[in-house]
Write a structure and sequence with these properties.
6 strands, about 35% strand, about 130 residues, single chain
């Protein structure tokens, strides 16, 4: 299944779901193997490996972080080649003064916003389906 490409269908069907908990962005130069299994996102960069972890995991391990995020998943199965979806919801969030960090998985788009903005961000995305 390749996912939906039509922007209007994607926006009407986005169905943002707020995942429970707080998540943090951190970087490690040599993360422990067992820590990787807790990560919801892993990005390997020249400078180190970025992990998005549940805040509780980072706190329990004494891992430093500077950004605490809420995690919103768009339940619509969007195609990786769909044009305009990220632009549409990031513009809606920018219009509300909310920054976002986006990760696309094979099936869904995942949006990380400052923890205090999570519900407001989800509502801004939901409003796209009503426009």
């Amino acid at each position: 299944m390749s996912g939906e490409n039509n922007l209007q269908v994607l926006l009407r069907s986005a169905s943002p779901v707020v995942n429970s908990g707080s998540y943090v962005f951190t970087t490690l130069s040599g993360p422990e193997a067992d820590l990787l299994e807790h990560a919801v996102v892993i990005v390997r960069e020249r400078e180190g490996t970025t992990l998005v972890l549940p805040q509780a995991t980072a706190d329990a391990r004494g891992i430093a972080y500077a950004y605490v995020a809420g995690w919103i998943t768009l339940e619509v199965h969007s195609s990786l080649s769909a044009v305009g979806l990220t632009a549409a919801f990031s513009a809606a969030l920018a219009g509300c003064g909310i920054s976002c960090n986006v990760v696309a998985g094979y099936y869904h788009d995942h949006i990380f916003v400052a923890i205090d903005d999570t519900e407001r961000a989800a509502e801004a995305i939901r409003s796209l389906s009503r426009e």
